[in-house]
Amino acid sequence: MVNKRLAQHVDWLLLLLVATIVSMGLATVYSATYAQTQSQTSQLVWRQAIWAGAGCVLMFALLIVDYRKLERFAYVIYVGVVALLVLVPVVGFLSGGSRRWIHLGFFALQPSELAKLALILVLARFFHRDTAPGSHGLKELVVPALLFAVPAVLTLAQPDLGSAAVLGFVCMSLVLIAGLRWRSMLSLVLVGLVGVFVAGQSLWGHLKPYQQKRILTFLNPEADPLGAGYHLIQSKIAVGSGMFWGKGFLHGTQNRLQFLPEQHTDFIFSVFAEEWGFVGCATLALLYAAVLLRGLQIVSRAKDRFGALIAFGVVSLIFWQAFVNMAMTTGLLPVVGITLPFFSYGGSSMITLLLGVGILLNVSMRRFTF
Amino acid sequence: MDSSSVPLPDSREAPNGFRRRLGVSVAILAAAFAFLIARFWQLQVTEGDVHRTLSENNRVRLKRVNAARGLIFDRGGQLLVENRPSFDVVMVPEDARQPQDVLERLGGFLHQELADARQALAAAAASRRPPFENVVLRRDVDWETLVAVETRQIELPGVSLQIGPRRSYLYGTTAAHLLGYVGEVSVEELQRLPGYRMGDTIGKYGLEKYWEDRLRGENGGQQIEVDAFGRKLRVLDEVPEVPGANIHLTLDAGLQHAAEEAMGDHEGSVVVLDPHDGAVLAMVSKPAFDPNLFARGITSDEWRSLTTDSLHPLANKALQGQYPPGSTFKIVVATAALEENIINPFTRIFCGGSLHYGNRDFRCWKKGGHGWVNLHEAIVGSCDVYFYQVGQRLGIDTIAQYARRYGLGAATGIPLDHERGGTIPDTQWKRQRYGEPWYSGETLSVAVGQGYVTATPLQMANLIAMVAAGGTRHRPHYVARVDAPEGVDVPAVPDQVAHLGVRSSTLAQVQSALRDVVMSERGTGRKARVEGIEVAGKTGTSQVVRLKTDRKVNQRLLPREQRDHAWFVSFAPVGAPEVAVACLIEHAGGGGGAMAAPVVQKVLAYYFEHRKAPREDGQQEARATR
Questions:
Q1: Residue B234 sits in the same domain as residue B335
Q2: How big is the A-B interface in CB pairs under 8 Å?
Q3: Which 108-147 residues of chain A touch chain B by CB within 8 A?
């Protein structure tokens, strides 16, 4: 239970950093939707604020429970989320060629977001409990691979390449931090390279170009070759045209003309960059870096291995999403559907990530209790 | 539990392992963000000016280049479907400044009212269209308009011409149902299919729909930089379009045309198959529609008249029309009876013109009866009483089993949408469908192809092709090969081969009887005879409503929808079959021998007159047209 002593140990700095990013995100969603609604505050902004509020409530609720309880329920949570993912193709609704959401009346739930947290929990439990600590061999990686594969395949089938990729990045990060023998790592890399090569030669090579293209478009509908090229140039122009100081709040022209695709979700960073320039972008990047460094500090101070592992999982989740999104918006990485943490419009993503922050706070404030 | 002042993540682990890895994480994190910030600097400071200029007035626009849709050829390499250039007059309202004034001026130059264009502009203004995107004012304009717009560019700011391919079906209604049609992608399709955009063309029906993925190609586009007046300055980036694959059909355009002519004003269907492999040589459904109407954008009046027509011009009756097969079904019953040893070729049954069964008289079409007949005579003269008797001895479930072995009761699997499978009733089906037991009287109706039993013309063509090919059944197909930019391939539509699995003597008996249906003086299919060719066939006349009165009522006095359907199924030449034909005439108002056999005769006559030309010569011709 939370007693006064525990409450004193809440990491207010981390909370403040996250709250700053959330507020900047809200302002940018307002700006991104400003053009369409003509000065009226868009409904989207209010909704986003509600998700942020709900996320905060859930985050604080999570603090009441000792994170070690999460270890006990890790598999239950995991199975529940996988069940939701299985439900998506059955009751999910179709939008833009993929089925990712379940209607809950007031809220469209995206189970692939929750899957990210569930995967962190089960992997942390596995590496904490079910294996000897330290250097892992290949045999110990069979179970984590399966735990990753089930939600990843279900997510990929929706299709949602972005979320599946994030699951992969998070899984990889946790395996590496849990420790892998050098020999195992080498053989993994070798097996991976050979696998990619063989698959490329035997399977992919045998497909006709139109079939390859169809598979790629299916897996990653965001990357319609023409549309993605268009998105990228427009997004780069938007970011670059911000120059050093930016065009000022609500003065982004690319955004105003509705040129940007997905301007309040995946591409929100380009709206922000246009209005706030290099100064704003660098500030935002540093804010994320600060959140992540604080997170790593929590990892290093964690009282037990499970706490360290879940905290590291959350850090890696925030890191990969932030990095891939900003790199994609500035044309460094191919376009996939990945949101900018705490910033992009979207309830499931916001709540998932705030719950993640809840995990960090939880691990942090219980580092002195035994 | 560990109680040291700085607890290690795990005391069992080498103390520096986890920490070292954490240190690496911090380094990776720092590097990643330094990398991002460097990228921001590059885009926003080093190249900032360039991007700022490009962002003003939206200097960068996307110009879509639609891929040319694949062409469609017949088996001889004759072009059936192509794309012709069409010009649309478009306007970018933001460049026009005063769109309504410009429109007014345009109307003046063209001497016409542009009410549609005004509507299009208003609709575009009301929608959440991205600015600087074209609004189509007029589609597919004529030469004069073209010249007028082109020469008055200065006075028409924001107005330009956009060239685009339009689908053109060279022979209008010919093979319309097989070819299908294209149209503008619908909102529902946009949601379901990735990679499409508003205004794209998509296959809506028939081959155009089924082979959409191959025909469509990949659209390309250009990122162009424009000046303040919307004029193109330079191309920033380009995604070249990839044309769609050309499709070569097994269809013979000449035979198709002959079959359509042979049908005249009748409604119904003709299907011609190659019994060796199930290739479709012709597929007719009447009445037909003109797919060109859809390609240019069908008007709501045209659409209404097509969809409300009681003759269903939009349905492909070859595979969607389900009709009682009538006496053509006797082929199934005869096969079953011989194979199950219910009869032998010498078994004679007396036909007195009707059979009293239960509380009802089951009539033979021949009022006076056929007298004592064996199987051969019963098929040749299409004696109903013989088959009532044989059917009764076989029982419904055995008949149904053989019907399914002939491919009835299930879709053939031809690569087209909306195919129906017909109905082959048996005791289980009746129980499930009606919750009632099977009455043995119903078996009598089924034995002569009446009652619950229905089949599509395509199924019947496949059935007669099976008889011709010695019992081998293929999945009908109509694409010979696909000629894609990256190479020619034969489409992977699996040829599902099935076998009838009966003694060869059984099929020989049936084949010989079918020959005499056409070739003997007593045959009901004499009108299908072709000079110098041995033709085999079977007539069928199927009742639409059960008439309590004499069956020999004057059909022409009945309302259309109560008149009999006429069937004729045929293969030729006997001995070395090359073609299998099924013809169905809806509500023909006459028997199969009188109405459908002459149609098949014309189809066969055309085929054998033109078959001298070797079929394979299409290959080179087709190559030349690419």
A1: no
A2: 192
A3: 132-135
